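Continuing the batch. This is chain 6 of the set; chains 1 through 5 are on the previous pages. Same settings as before, nothing changed between runs. Recording input and output for traceability.
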Amino acid sequence: MDLSTFDVVVIGAGPGGYVTAIRASQLGLTVAVVDKNENPGGTCLNVGCIPSKCLLDASQKYWQTKHQFKDIGIEFKELQLNLSQMMAHKESVVEELTHGIGHLFKKNNIAFIHGTAKILNANDVEVTYKDDKKGILRGKAIVIAVGSSTQALPFLPFDGKEVVSSTDALSFDTVPKHLVVVGGGYIGLELGSVWMRLGSLVTVVEFGNTILAQADDDVRNALQRSLEKQGMVFKTAKNVVGMTKKGKDKELCLQVLDVKAKDGELPELITCDAVLVAAGRKPEISSLGLDALAISVDARGFIDVNNQYQTTIPSIFAIGDCIKGPMLAHKAMDEGVAVAELLAGQAGNVNYEIIPAVVFTHPEIATVGKTENELKTAGHDYKVGKFSFAANGRAKTIGDTTGFVKIMTEAKTDRVLGCAIVGAEAGSLIGQVAAIMEFGGSAEDIARTCHAHPTLNEAIKEAAWSAFDRALHS
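Output for chain 6:
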């Protein structure tokens, strides 16, 4: 076996891993990155965030062209969907971005190694290459950034065609006539939106009483009403208990029971031609050999770390989806910067109170900080400022007035505690509020900051006025 020595060996080239590597290299450390995939970028870039957003954008443009453009004087006589070209565009974007990360690795003198990693001890990583040859990478520090994978249900195993994961649902070669989505979280709603816009009947089956369980009532209700108006069907408080095939065409038949069903009650039967299981994700740590090292892992498979991202072996660190916290690419990136800075002797830190989350449906949903439900449950003395996009000039001009901005503040100090935005470009707009919160700012700080007109972010200003004093335009 050959042996190569580095300051840092990173396992995983997703957002957390590649950012760790780049920042560590910038700080003067020698770095190697190992990934089981030939192309860097991890789930997010290859089969997650980026390809799904490509399809969300393309499908939204198709839907608008078909249903909305005539209202502003743009008409098409023979609109056609070229699904293969849409998929080709998605793949070209992914390829361009993965090549971009490869370029960043070269620019920063980072060794990228394609192979499967297994941690042997506190400093050595065994790499199995494509030809089954093995090598050893020795690192003063090892950073685990392996991400997560889709979680199947025992009675609905993935087959890649009829029962599919979120990865498979990015690459249907035809538009399903009826797609059932099991799970009412953001992944299921986003991918369900894609295929609904392209012509599928989409039914969402959710075990809980509501979709987006962590969101405030007004936020999820606004989204559900909008998606129902677009044609999505919701079945909440329902439990999928099995699946059969019937008829000569072997049509899929999903068996669904009310969660409060009595013994002997017959399930509802939902016929469809594809089932997307979007029931959560799990850390992808099974091949790392952690059991033999006695590295502590909790009951759900997340690696236990301290406040400096160290595992129970101090030279081995972990970040991203394989540790506790929201499974978000930007959270992993910030952790990657933090752990690299800690390894270089600096004071890396992540403010977990201010991590935005976005659902890229239409309308978009973006949140940061505390929800109103959380503040209410905790008995916090708070105020709410709210402003509707229906009264926003820019929203009117683009014909997209669904939704609102809601800002929660501390009643005594006016400090911004949280924000929820439902509407166009919510994911971009939330950054303004996150920045104010990072500096401990108040609603008055937002309200008295001059905003360009006409823009969507004027709705944030108006919501801030409402929380601080009163809105000017409502």
